[in-house]
Amino acid sequence: MFVSSMGMFNRFHTRLTAAFGYNGYPPMQENDPPKAGAGDRVGTALVRLAIAILFFLGAFSHGPLASYSSQADLKGRAFLGAHGRIAKAIVNGDGYSDPFVVRTGPTAWMPPVTTYVLAVVMKIAGENTAFIYCAIWLGQGAAAILWTTLVISLLRKYQLPTLIPSVFTAWALIANATLLFLNTHDPFMTVALSSLTIWYIDRAATGPSTALSLMVSGFFVGIALLTHPSVGIAATVVFLLFANLKHRQVGYFLIPILLVLLPWLVYCRLRMGGWVPVKSNAGFELWQSQVLDDDGLLDMNTMRLHPMTSRHSTSTQLILENGELNFVRARRSEAIDHIVNNPGDYVSRCVTRLIACHVWPKPFDEISVWNAWQTWGGGMIRICSLISCLAVLLHLNYVPTRLFWIGLTMCLLTSAPYMLISHMDRYTVAWLPSQLIIISEGVRCMVQSFPKQWQMLQA
């Protein structure tokens, strides 16, 4: 038994050292030519076809072929969510403020990068709403091309099968058509940022760790934190895990992150009257999930009471009376008291959110046909990713690629805040690229014992 246990330990140790690069893994070197056979070309063509179809449908939704008389204008509730409202306040000279349906003053409700990009577009467009919608439509198409190309290029680099993952990528595009192509919210930017982060970390962590390269990496991660904090936090941890830095090199990476964050943190301190960790709404999100919602998964019924959608809700009135930061702190204290008094309920809700993040989602609006389609489509991606992950981890004779460990770590760390604090289905796109990478690794693991099938996937 002792010998058997030592054998299992040695195999597991081999897999971990391979993941962190101590034995020169992965076997494919940077200068090896990636294979692009018939299966690869078919998979890429499927992804491009899915993007083209959805991009065309988006043209009728809010692109150049849309009927703008039926769309929300700059004063409407649906236009770009909180990002759009804050961007409009910036353009109007009111500063970073007013994310809700009524004017509530200075805010840190949303991180700044996306908002300022939208403000630039609005400033250029003036009162031309059609121009803004078309800019978003073009951005959605560009983002889809970017993130799918990055994911497929990573699979090729590590000689992972691309045909089946490309089919899943096309499926993911279609399943998330509403989020990525048919509305004007920010998920299309989130999934692009997540893919770009994984691609960048893979390149930076395997390249030479010079002072300049580490400072550039820190700057990139700082921008990621100001764009999507969950992705940025995950990127920071993953880079430190996989870059094999010496102690004196860590500062070259962390100091630029702090320098990027510092102006925003100081701005929030001066404008809001308190320190804000990039965005202010985490305490309110926890309160919504723990006190207001019935199961911890935000849905349409809960969001009807959100200051984003309701002028007359209790939350909206409290923000007007007390200011955003005091309101969030009060809600956070109420949520923490509820958790302390009902720890079992909190654990139950965390488990429910974990299942929604990684096993099967709950539709945001059970009446909507699009939400039902998104639930089933997204559920299939989650199930296949989970099965693939278990297959890789339980196959003790299989050594996963470094990319698998990066993707798995990014997936878990990016989703962790949503499992612990608050979750709705559209947040899942933040770890969609990681799930596709895990699926590809699972396919390779499952067919590794069958050389003929493996050759067909590589062909």
Based on the model shown, name its key terms:
69% helix; 459 residues
Question: In which range does the helix fraction lie?
Answer: 55-70%
Number of strands: 0
**Spatial extent as radius of gyration:** 23 Å
Instruction: Give the DSSP E fraction (strand runs of 2 or more residues).
Output: under 5%
Helix count from the secondary structure assignment: 20
The structure class reads: mainly alpha
Uncertain segments: 1-14, 20-34, 69-78
Number of domains: 1
Q: State the shape.
A: globular
* Biggest β-sheet strands, sense, barrel: none
Order of helices and strands: HHHHHHHHHHHHHHHHHHHH
Average pLDDT over all residues: 85
Our measurement of the CA-to-CA distance between the termini, rounded to an integer number of angstroms, reads 43 Å
Description:
This protein is an all-alpha fold and 459 residues long. It has one domain (36-458). Helix content is 69%, strand content 0%. The protein has helices at residues 2-19, 38-61, 81-91, 112-125, 129-157, 163-175, 177-180, 187-206, 211-227, 229-242, 247-272, 282-292, 300-303, 314-322, 324-341, 343-358, 369-394, 402-420, 432-447, 451-458. Helix 3 (81-91) packs across helix 4 (112-125), helix 6 packs antiparallel against helix 19 and helix 16 (343-358) packs across helix 18. The model is unreliable at 1-14, 20-34 and 69-78 (pLDDT under 50).
